[in-house]
Each structure stands twice: as structure tokens, then as C-alpha cells.
Amino acid sequence: MNQYIRKKILMRLQKHDPQPISELNGTSPFEILIATVLSAQSTDVSVNKVTSRLYPWANTAPTLLEFGIERLKNKIKTLGLYNIKSKNIINICHILLEKHGGDVPNNMEALKSLPGVGRKTASVVLNKAFHQPTIAVDRHVFRVCNRSRFAIGASVREVEKKLLQCVPKIFQMNCHQWFVSHGRYTCLSRKPKCGVCLIEDLCEFTSKY
């Protein structure tokens, strides 16, 4: 795909949704971090249900430590991997207090050093909490980029590198959320909704439905 077509795709997505909003709830950097950690192998809807019950009681590192791991497990037990997530979250709280004054760090390496935080989670936090132009690549972004030929890669890291190279700076802040929404509601995994796709005429997928 050439750069002219890429820009047309981004402009069309921007026109359709000028200010995309993440479906994962969270107002502070800490809430966004914890919600993103909880979202691993869980839907945003299920995570939002959990955080709506958890955050009124504990939504900072000190209050979550006081809340305790057993009560935390009980609050998030409807999510997959809740035992591991509970342990990671408690350890995250300890590290934030010991090394960062209780605040969430705003750089990639510090975030990746936290338990249960990989590059994708760190990129989401940097983008949503600190308004940095990162482009996190999850399964939706990976699928949309490869299927449309927007950015082809065998791994999420490879796709991320290509996106950061080919997406103009003015679009990088919202690119992740545009592609997530497109993959979640239109460019579905098993059968994409090509007939109602906003970018069907620009997409290079060869087996359109």
C-alpha cells in the first residue's frame, strides 16, 4: 500500500470519528494502568464492570494496598487470570510507591518494568493517560493492518514499527483507537463486514465479502 492511500484511510477514519474514546474506563493514569492490566484476555465491558465496583473503594496505590490482595481477588474474580492479575497489581502498587512516589511513570521502559505490563499495555497507558503519540498493536490492530495491507508484519512489534514509520504524526495520537474500533465492529476476525466498511474501496484485502 502506498503512502497516499494510507493517508486517505486515516483521513476517512478521522472524519468518521474525530475524537475517538477508549471503551476502557479510567480517569487517572493509575486507573487507566490498572484497567489495562486487567483487560488482558478479558473484554473491556467485563473490565469496566469490575472497575466500577473496585475504584470507589480503591483507585490509588496506597488504597489498593490497604484494600489487600484477598479483597482484590474477590472484586476481580469474574475476569480471566484473576489470581495472577491480583498479584501483579499489588506488586505494581508496591513498586509505584517505592520507586515513583506513588505516581505512574510516563515512559516506556519504566512502565514495562512493572509486573504484568508489556509493550502493548505500556503503549496504551502512554497514549491514553499521558497523551503521547504511541500506537499500541493488539489483535484488532494487527488484523486490520495485515488484512488491509496498511502495515504488514509477522509480529505485533514489526507492525508497530511500520505504523510509527508510515503514520503521519498528526494521526498517531488516535490511530490505535481507530483501528481497534474498526477491527472490533467492522473488520471482524472470521468474516469482515466488507459491504459496510468505511474504507472498502481503499483496502487491499483480496477476499472481500
Automatic annotation (TrEMBL):
SUPFAM superfamilies: DNA-glycosylase. Its EC number is 4.2.99.18. It comes from the Bacteria. Residues 38-185 form the HhH-GPD domain. The keyword 4Fe-4S applies. Its cofactor is [4Fe-4S] cluster. Keywords: 4Fe-4S, DNA damage, DNA repair, DNA-binding, Endonuclease, Glycosidase, Hydrolase, Iron, Iron-sulfur, Lyase, Metal-binding, Nuclease. [4Fe-4S] cluster binds at residues 187, 194, 197, 203. DNA repair enzyme that has both DNA N-glycosylase activity and AP-lyase activity. The DNA N-glycosylase activity releases various damaged pyrimidines from DNA by cleaving the N-glycosidic bond, leaving an AP (apurinic/apyrimidinic) site. The AP-lyase activity cleaves the phosphodiester bond 3' to the AP site by a beta-elimination, leaving a 3'-terminal unsaturated sugar and a product with a terminal 5'-phosphate. The keyword Transport does not apply. One of its GO terms (biological process) is base-excision repair, AP site formation. Binds 1 [4Fe-4S] cluster. HAMAP family: Nth. It comes from Candidatus Erwinia haradaeae. GO terms for molecular function: 4 iron, 4 sulfur cluster binding; class I DNA-(apurinic or apyrimidinic site) endonuclease activity; DNA binding; DNA N-glycosylase activity; metal ion binding. The lineage of its organism: Bacteria, Pseudomonadati, Pseudomonadota, Gammaproteobacteria, Enterobacterales. Belongs to the Nth/MutY family. It catalyses: 2'-deoxyribonucleotide-(2'-deoxyribose 5'-phosphate)-2'-deoxyribonucleotide-DNA = a 3'-end 2'-deoxyribonucleotide-(2,3-dehydro-2,3-deoxyribose 5'-phosphate)-DNA + a 5'-end 5'-phospho-2'-deoxyribonucleoside-DNA + H(+). This is Endonuclease III.
